[in-house]
Each structure stands twice: as C-alpha cells, then as structure tokens.
Amino acid sequence: MTPTLTPTRGREALNLSGIVSRLLQWLRGIQWKPRPPVASPLQPFQPTLSRQWPVGPPYMTLTIRDKNSRLVGEEMALDGALVGIASAFDAAVAGLIGAIEVSRGTTNLIPVHQYSWQAAKGLARQAPAVTLACATAVDAALLGANTAAPSGWLAQVRQLRNRVAHQNTLIRHFFRTVGGPGAPQQPSQIDVPGRGKEDPLPYLQAQLVASRSLCADILKDSDIINP
Question: Residue-wise over 177-198: b if at least 16 C-beta within 10 A, else e?
C-alpha cells in the first residue's frame, strides 16, 4: 500500500503569513507614548546654618491643627538642632564610659540606660583612677543643670531639648510688621533658660561650635585611656 503524502508545507506558509499580517495590524494600532523626560540628578545635600531665619509675621497665618501649637517648619528645625547638639554630648559620654571599661577589662559594665556624665566621672574615680582632662569644661557646660535658670550652655540646650519633648513647643516671641510691607521685620526669638530671648540661628550656631569643641575634648580623653 502506497502512503498518501499531504502537502502541509504550503498550508504552514499560508498560516504563518496570516499570523504575521495580523501581528503587523496589531502593532499599527498601538499608540506609542513618548518616554517621560529623565529627571536631572539630585544635587548633594549641603547643610548650612547661614540661611536667614524666617521672619515672625508669616507664621501667624499658618493653620494650627488639632490645637497643636507646633508651627511645623520652624519647630522641626529647632527640634532637630537641639536634639542633635544634646545627643552628640550623650554619645561622646557613652564612648568615654566604654573606653574606661575596655581599658580595665571589667565585666561589671554600667547598664546603658544609666549612662550619664556623673556615671562617667564616678567610673573614672574608681581604682585604677584615670584623669579626665575634659572634666572642667564639661562641669562648666552643665552648671546649674538642675535649676530653672542654668548658666552652663549645655545645660541650657538640654533644657530646651527636654521642653520640646515634654511640653511640645518652645516659648517664642513674634513681632508684627510696623509701617507697611517694606518695613524691616524682626525675626522670631526663643526663650532660653538662664539667658532670656535669643535669635535662633546665632544662638544655635554658637552652641554647635561649643558642642564640637566639647565632644572633641571628651573623645580625646577616650583615645588616651583606650588607644
């Protein structure tokens, strides 16, 4: 019996031609959308404290939500600066305590939640005692820390930091424009414990410089104790 040959090659070519034809019709019906423009790369963040502080009157027009006296933009800037300055000191003291403990090989470590400047000084007095060259500067910076009007600059900063955390706002003083929109405007001021009214930026700039110097002294002692 002779097998019957079916001419399939012609049908396959016909089917392929139909598929290609339908594919081309589908492609023609697509509406090509232009690509969105590529965003320019972000510039590196360059923090600065030289920007002029916002004047007081515009803040009087801000909406206060939920009876919250925090004026969002200004308060966030103040909170961040105060927390950063105070936390830098806390971190330096933690490094000092750790350096003393490591140098002695002690296993009876001070719990982290008990870290403080007083704890660091007490640890330094224990045998074998170590001399803290930074002690005089730190004690002066914390002078009057437990009073309502401290004289030490760091004690003042820490009280302001605690105030924004515990009472949700700082005591500020606003000035309204007198003499029309072209008249000079006084900036908002904050009430610093033990100092009185201060313009925020000059005050914070000075505290930042003092904080860098004090923390450097503390860390220098840490390096000497535990090279």
Answer: eeeeeeeeeebbbbebbbeeeb
Boundaries of every domain in the chain: 57-61+73-177+185-225
Q: What is the pLDDT of residues 20-54, one digit of tens each?
A: 666 666 666 655 555 655 555 555 555 454 444 44
pTM above 0.90, yes or no: no
